[in-house]
């Protein structure tokens, strides 16, 4: 019977099938190990990305708090400076009007007029100094407002980075889910 070619073919086919089955099992085990490693790598990457998202979220919250405080402070300063500037200007205008009326009343007395002119000049210089000081405060408030605007732009950039990290996280989670499904 061993000389029968059909029996030999059946015997060889069984051996090839066993080898193919064993090779298929090895390939499947290799792929299973590779998928497990890739899944572990994706989970590690996912954890790192989540930590980055948490850190950026914390920084964003801190920046938002700082910006709100700066904005509130700037608004208070600007309102105070504007109110003070208006009050000082009105007060100075009233004072200037009163001084002018006094100079007209004392026009007959040249000596008194000279004294008042000197006084008016000194007060005018003080008014100019006060106006310049108020302008300086206003400029400082405008600079603070510009810094607030810069901080808001930085906050917007941080928000964009967080969004990008969230997108990367979603992609990583999707890859992990695909890897686990395989």
Describe the fold and architecture:
- The chain is an all-alpha fold and 182 residues long.
- The protein has a single domain, classed as Orthogonal Bundle (Helix Hairpins), CATH 1.10.287.
- The chain contains two helices and no strands.
- The two termini are 47 Å apart.
- 1% of the residues are buried.
- The mean pLDDT is 85.
Features:
single chain, 182 residues, mainly alpha, Helix Hairpins, 2 helices
Outline the fold blueprint.
Layout: H1 5-105, H2 110-181
Helix pairs in contact: 1-2
How do you describe this structure in short?
The protein is mostly helical.
* Biggest β-sheet strands, sense, barrel: none
CATH class: Mainly Alpha
Structurally, the number of domains stands at: 1
**If you consult CATH, what is the topology?**
Helix Hairpins
Q: Give the helix tally.
A: 2
Supply the CATH architecture: Orthogonal Bundle
Roughly what is the average pLDDT, rounded to an integer? 85
Radius of gyration: 42 Å
